[in-house]
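Sequence in, structure out. Go.
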Amino acid sequence: RFSYGDDPDYDELGEYAWFFENSVDRIRAVGQKRPNAWGLHDMHGNSVEWCLDWYAESLPGGTVTDPRGPNSGSKRVYRGGGWNGNGQDCRSARRAGGPPDRRDDECGFRVVLAPDP
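Output:
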């Protein structure tokens, strides 16, 4: 469920994520919670992740590396949960669709810098 483990009862989530139960109704500065196994902070909670992919109600099953979704659409994919969501929203697999021009204090994106080969 999470980058730190399954955590079926959400007992450890508060150590890794800001969400409704512990955020005190606001977004938080990155790095205050425990990092995951790769040293990355705030990969769950705090901010809903706005993604490049177009949203589809369902995706094909099976094992897929870097699934892309449809080539066009009216909604973008949003992943994970933010500071105002519940623990279930913070799961790695959680996805929803929303307008491409969404603007609010719970939605953001992650900048990734890939190392040179």
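Check: The CA atoms of residues 111 and 117 lie 19 Å apart. The chain has a mean pLDDT of 89.
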